[in-house]
Amino acid sequence: MTEPQSNQVDAESLDNTGLVLRQDEDSVAFLTLNLPGAYNALSLAMMEAVLQELARLDQDPGIAAVVIKGSGKGFCAGHDLKEMRANPDVAFREKTFATCSAMMMAVTQLRQPVIAQIHGIATAAGCQLVASCDLAIAATDARFSTPGVNIGLFCSTPMVALSRAVSRKKAMEMLLTGDMIGAPEAAGIGLINKSVPSDLLDRAVKELAQKVASKSPLVLKTGKEAFYQQIDMPLAQAYDHCSRIMVENMAFKDAEEGIDAFIGKRPPVWKGE
């Protein structure tokens, strides 16, 4: 897969492990899971590295959108099962799953929208990561599954994100059978936004990321936060909550600028205020 070409100074390897590579292009940050020999398995160190990068990004005013992708032949094969078998201590396993949950929630809570770019496979916790991202585009030959049931380890934590991204029946089908589904079906059930030919994947993701990043960063933060706050509320409570958000949003300088630009038929100039 072709790496995104940056017109800025190279910003890779911001963590000292090399497990996550970062490259910035304009206001988009590309994070690459970098353990290709193990299909970017989510070892404890890998997840801690992702959390470190997300914490940095949350404080970076120059970044308006984030892309998460994988190196090598696939996006992510899920947890590092060899590591977990080699560490039977309950405390280690508790830390592993707690760190995984923290990483998934950090994706959802990040102020910038996060886009998953999927090629090859996204299985188990890798599928969970796709479901946790705000948007997702996959190559047409990408495949997805939650196969834990096949090895005696039900994908209970992947189920949390999966069941919130797709219908209950499709989530249960994936969880109970462990079967792979293709990218077109994943798009059909809402796990991803769309699939594109593999040679167009980089361009499609970059175009989407740049489109999102062109909006007011303050409005993106406000909207993403409100989306996840209201999604599980009762209908009346959700409307009350989002009405308050709209009133607050109307007071933003970026809202005034956006409306004035629309009326004046000119591009808006965002200030993030």
Automatic annotation (TrEMBL):
Under Pfam families, the record lists: ECH_1 (PF00378)
Query: Does the record carry Lipid metabolism as a key word?
Result: yes
> Which GO terms of the molecular function aspect are on file?
hydro-lyase activity
Q: Which InterPro entries does this one have?
A: ClpP/crotonase-like_dom_sf, Enoyl-CoA_hydra/iso, Enoyl-CoA_hydra_C, Mitochondrial_ECH-domain
One of the GO BP terms on file: fatty acid metabolic process
Keyword list (alphabetical) reads: Fatty acid metabolism, Lipid metabolism, Transit peptide
Metal-binding among keywords: no
PANTHER family (UniProt xref): ENOYL-COA HYDRATASE DOMAIN-CONTAINING PROTEIN 3, MITOCHONDRIAL, PTHR43602
Q: Which family does it belong to?
A: Belongs to the enoyl-CoA hydratase/isomerase family.
Tell me, what does this protein do in biology? May play a role in fatty acid biosynthesis and insulin sensitivity.
Q: What is this protein called?
A: Enoyl-CoA hydratase domain-containing protein 3, mitochondrial
Lineage of source species = Bacteria, Pseudomonadati, Pseudomonadota, Alphaproteobacteria, Rhodospirillales
